[in-house]
TrEMBL record:
Name of the protein this chain belongs to: DUF1349 domain-containing protein
Highest taxon, organism lineage: Bacteria
Gene3D superfamilies: 2.60.120.200
Protein backbone atom coordinates (compact mmCIF):
# COMPACT_ATOMS: atom_id res chain seq x y z
CA UNK A 1 0.00 0.00 0.00
CA UNK A 2 1.23 3.45 -0.87
CA UNK A 3 1.31 5.90 2.04
CA UNK A 4 -1.50 8.42 1.62
CA UNK A 5 -1.06 12.18 1.97
CA UNK A 6 -2.83 14.27 4.64
CA UNK A 7 -6.08 16.09 3.98
CA UNK A 8 -6.83 19.32 5.86
CA UNK A 9 -9.99 19.20 7.97
CA UNK A 10 -11.04 22.43 6.23
CA UNK A 11 -11.30 20.63 2.86
CA UNK A 12 -14.34 18.67 3.95
CA UNK A 13 -18.04 19.49 4.00
CA UNK A 14 -20.36 18.04 6.66
CA UNK A 15 -23.28 15.91 5.50
CA UNK A 16 -24.97 16.74 8.82
CA UNK A 17 -23.37 19.27 11.15
CA UNK A 18 -22.32 17.85 14.53
CA UNK A 19 -23.20 19.45 17.87
CA UNK A 20 -19.68 20.89 18.14
CA UNK A 21 -16.36 20.81 16.30
CA UNK A 22 -13.01 22.00 17.65
CA UNK A 23 -9.45 21.78 16.43
CA UNK A 24 -6.93 20.89 19.12
CA UNK A 25 -3.46 20.96 17.63
CA UNK A 26 -3.55 18.64 14.63
CA UNK A 27 -6.64 16.79 15.94
CA UNK A 28 -10.34 17.39 15.26
CA UNK A 29 -12.76 16.86 18.17
CA UNK A 30 -16.31 16.15 17.04
CA UNK A 31 -19.34 15.99 19.35
CA UNK A 32 -22.09 13.79 17.90
CA UNK A 33 -25.80 14.51 18.23
CA UNK A 34 -27.89 12.06 20.22
CA UNK A 35 -29.81 9.79 17.84
CA UNK A 36 -27.51 10.40 14.86
CA UNK A 37 -27.04 7.34 12.63
CA UNK A 38 -26.70 6.01 9.07
CA UNK A 39 -28.90 3.11 7.91
CA UNK A 40 -31.45 2.23 5.21
CA UNK A 41 -34.36 -0.16 5.72
CA UNK A 42 -32.93 -3.64 6.27
CA UNK A 43 -34.29 -5.49 9.32
CA UNK A 44 -34.96 -2.32 11.34
CA UNK A 45 -37.32 -0.76 8.80
CA UNK A 46 -36.10 2.81 9.29
CA UNK A 47 -33.96 5.24 7.31
CA UNK A 48 -31.40 7.37 9.16
CA UNK A 49 -29.16 9.70 7.18
CA UNK A 50 -27.88 12.10 9.81
CA UNK A 51 -24.48 10.70 10.77
CA UNK A 52 -21.78 13.37 10.90
CA UNK A 53 -19.54 12.76 7.87
CA UNK A 54 -16.86 15.24 6.80
CA UNK A 55 -16.42 14.51 3.10
CA UNK A 56 -14.28 15.62 0.18
CA UNK A 57 -14.16 14.17 -3.36
CA UNK A 58 -12.18 10.93 -3.66
CA UNK A 59 -10.50 9.87 -6.87
CA UNK A 60 -11.64 6.72 -8.67
CA UNK A 61 -9.52 4.71 -8.19
CA UNK A 62 -8.36 6.05 -4.84
CA UNK A 63 -7.96 5.31 -1.15
CA UNK A 64 -8.89 7.13 2.05
CA UNK A 65 -7.59 6.62 5.59
CA UNK A 66 -9.00 7.98 8.84
CA UNK A 67 -7.40 7.62 12.29
CA UNK A 68 -9.26 8.29 15.55
CA UNK A 69 -9.29 7.30 19.21
CA UNK A 70 -11.68 4.40 19.92
CA UNK A 71 -12.70 5.73 23.32
CA UNK A 72 -16.38 4.78 23.35
CA UNK A 73 -18.67 3.74 26.17
CA UNK A 74 -22.29 3.49 25.04
CA UNK A 75 -24.18 1.11 22.79
CA UNK A 76 -23.63 1.86 19.09
CA UNK A 77 -21.12 4.70 19.72
CA UNK A 78 -19.16 4.66 16.45
CA UNK A 79 -16.56 6.36 14.28
CA UNK A 80 -14.58 5.65 11.14
CA UNK A 81 -14.89 6.66 7.52
CA UNK A 82 -17.66 7.11 4.97
CA UNK A 83 -17.49 6.68 1.20
CA UNK A 84 -20.64 8.24 -0.29
CA UNK A 85 -22.02 8.67 -3.81
CA UNK A 86 -25.56 9.65 -2.73
CA UNK A 87 -28.15 8.94 -0.02
CA UNK A 88 -28.72 5.40 -1.32
CA UNK A 89 -25.13 4.52 -2.26
CA UNK A 90 -22.58 4.62 0.54
CA UNK A 91 -20.31 2.66 2.81
CA UNK A 92 -19.35 3.33 6.42
CA UNK A 93 -16.51 1.43 8.07
CA UNK A 94 -14.95 1.69 11.49
CA UNK A 95 -15.53 0.56 15.04
CA UNK A 96 -18.58 0.66 17.27
CA UNK A 97 -19.85 -0.70 20.56
CA UNK A 98 -22.26 -3.59 19.94
CA UNK A 99 -23.28 -6.43 22.25
CA UNK A 100 -21.20 -4.83 24.99
CA UNK A 101 -17.87 -4.95 23.16
CA UNK A 102 -15.95 -2.88 20.61
CA UNK A 103 -16.44 -4.29 17.10
CA UNK A 104 -14.78 -3.52 13.77
CA UNK A 105 -17.07 -3.64 10.79
CA UNK A 106 -18.75 -2.07 7.82
CA UNK A 107 -22.20 -1.16 6.54
CA UNK A 108 -22.59 -1.24 2.76
CA UNK A 109 -25.67 0.48 1.36
CA UNK A 110 -26.81 0.01 -2.21
CA UNK A 111 -30.44 1.02 -1.77
CA UNK A 112 -30.61 -1.11 1.39
CA UNK A 113 -28.02 -1.48 4.15
CA UNK A 114 -26.19 -4.57 5.34
CA UNK A 115 -23.88 -4.94 8.35
CA UNK A 116 -20.88 -7.04 9.31
CA UNK A 117 -18.84 -6.89 12.53
CA UNK A 118 -16.10 -8.75 14.39
CA UNK A 119 -15.12 -8.19 18.04
CA UNK A 120 -11.90 -6.27 18.75
CA UNK A 121 -11.96 -5.70 22.53
CA UNK A 122 -8.20 -5.10 22.54
CA UNK A 123 -8.68 -2.00 20.38
CA UNK A 124 -10.67 -0.13 23.04
CA UNK A 125 -9.02 3.15 24.03
CA UNK A 126 -6.43 2.93 21.26
CA UNK A 127 -5.93 4.88 18.04
CA UNK A 128 -7.62 3.00 15.20
CA UNK A 129 -6.96 3.57 11.50
CA UNK A 130 -9.53 2.55 8.90
CA UNK A 131 -8.66 2.43 5.19
CA UNK A 132 -10.98 2.10 2.19
CA UNK A 133 -9.50 1.50 -1.25
CA UNK A 134 -11.80 1.95 -4.25
CA UNK A 135 -10.98 0.43 -7.64
CA UNK A 136 -13.26 -0.83 -10.39
CA UNK A 137 -16.54 -2.07 -8.94
CA UNK A 138 -15.23 -2.75 -5.43
CA UNK A 139 -14.05 -1.19 -2.19
CA UNK A 140 -11.55 -2.99 0.03
CA UNK A 141 -11.76 -2.05 3.71
CA UNK A 142 -8.88 -2.61 6.11
CA UNK A 143 -8.33 -1.52 9.72
CA UNK A 144 -5.75 -1.66 12.49
CA UNK A 145 -5.06 -0.45 16.02
CA UNK A 146 -1.83 1.42 16.70
CA UNK A 147 0.94 0.34 14.36
CA UNK A 148 -0.24 -3.26 14.03
CA UNK A 149 -0.57 -4.66 10.50
CA UNK A 150 -3.79 -3.80 8.67
CA UNK A 151 -6.38 -6.58 8.71
CA UNK A 152 -8.93 -7.16 5.99
CA UNK A 153 -12.42 -6.16 7.12
CA UNK A 154 -14.46 -6.36 3.94
CA UNK A 155 -14.42 -6.49 0.16
CA UNK A 156 -17.65 -4.83 -0.92
CA UNK A 157 -19.37 -3.87 -4.16
CA UNK A 158 -19.51 -0.20 -5.11
CA UNK A 159 -20.63 1.17 -8.49
CA UNK A 160 -17.75 1.77 -10.90
CA UNK A 161 -17.31 5.21 -12.40
CA UNK A 162 -19.71 7.00 -10.03
CA UNK A 163 -18.31 10.16 -8.40
CA UNK A 164 -18.03 9.80 -4.64
CA UNK A 165 -16.71 11.66 -1.62
CA UNK A 166 -15.02 10.24 1.47
CA UNK A 167 -13.78 11.20 4.90
CA UNK A 168 -14.22 10.77 8.66
CA UNK A 169 -17.57 10.19 10.34
CA UNK A 170 -19.09 9.55 13.74
CA UNK A 171 -22.54 9.14 15.24
CA UNK A 172 -24.22 8.33 18.53
CA UNK A 173 -27.51 6.49 18.01
CA UNK A 174 -28.32 6.00 21.70
CA UNK A 175 -26.91 8.91 23.72
CA UNK A 176 -25.74 12.50 23.94
CA UNK A 177 -22.18 13.54 24.74
CA UNK A 178 -20.04 11.35 22.46
CA UNK A 179 -16.87 13.23 21.55
CA UNK A 180 -14.54 11.62 19.01
CA UNK A 181 -10.92 12.67 18.59
CA UNK A 182 -9.93 12.31 14.93
CA UNK A 183 -6.16 12.28 14.51
CA UNK A 184 -5.67 11.98 10.76
CA UNK A 185 -7.42 12.09 7.39
CA UNK A 186 -5.46 11.13 4.29
CA UNK A 187 -6.00 10.11 0.67
CA UNK A 188 -3.87 8.47 -1.98
CA UNK A 189 -3.76 5.88 -4.73
CA UNK A 190 -5.81 2.70 -4.53
CA UNK A 191 -4.15 -0.44 -3.21
CA UNK A 192 -2.29 -2.38 -5.88
CA UNK A 193 -3.46 -5.78 -4.63
CA UNK A 194 -6.20 -7.29 -2.49
CA UNK A 195 -3.77 -9.38 -0.41
Amino acid sequence: MTAPGPVAWSRGTWTTAPVAVAEEGPDLLVTAAEGSDAWRHTSYGFVHDDAHALLAPLGDPGAVEVAFDADFGARFDQAGLVLRADEQTWLKAGVEVSDGVLQVGAVVTLGRSDWSVAPVPGWAGRTVTVRASRAGDAVTVRARAGDEPFRLVRVAPFPAGVPAAAGPYCCAPTRAGLVVRFRRWATGPADAALH
